[in-house]
Target: NodB homology domain-containing protein
Amino acid sequence: VLASQGEPIKWFRPGGGFFRREMVSIAARHGYSTALGNCFPMDTHMPQSHNVWYLRLRAAPGKIIIIHDRPKLRPTLEAVLPELCERYQVVTLSALFRAAAEAQPKDGPAPEKGAPSASRLPPGPTAIGKYTCLPRTET
Model:
């Protein structure tokens, strides 16, 4: 995974999305930024057909999708990613946050340490696992 991305993965997602301030601080001390999601198909408990249906319905700009590395992951992504990639450009979560930092006004308040909050993200990103989709732009 690291070789394919060309950069170390330094993201932490607390199990179940539940965290305490101390967890975030410890992760930050070890160089990890904390990331949460807002589109969760309950993939570990539901059949693959439900996961595909849910992601087709709910994937949208601003959504960060949480799906787990289980046997259903590959067929789910094979069914959903081509469709989503027609509408979005797939990039890493790190690339999304770099884009968010670059979109910050230069004369605005200094960004806080760690990942920017969802309210400060530019419109349009969708994350799938370690990938993130940005609105497709013409080149």
Q: What stands out?
A: The longest helix spans residues 73-87. The longest strand covers residues 88-92. The chain has five helices and six strands.
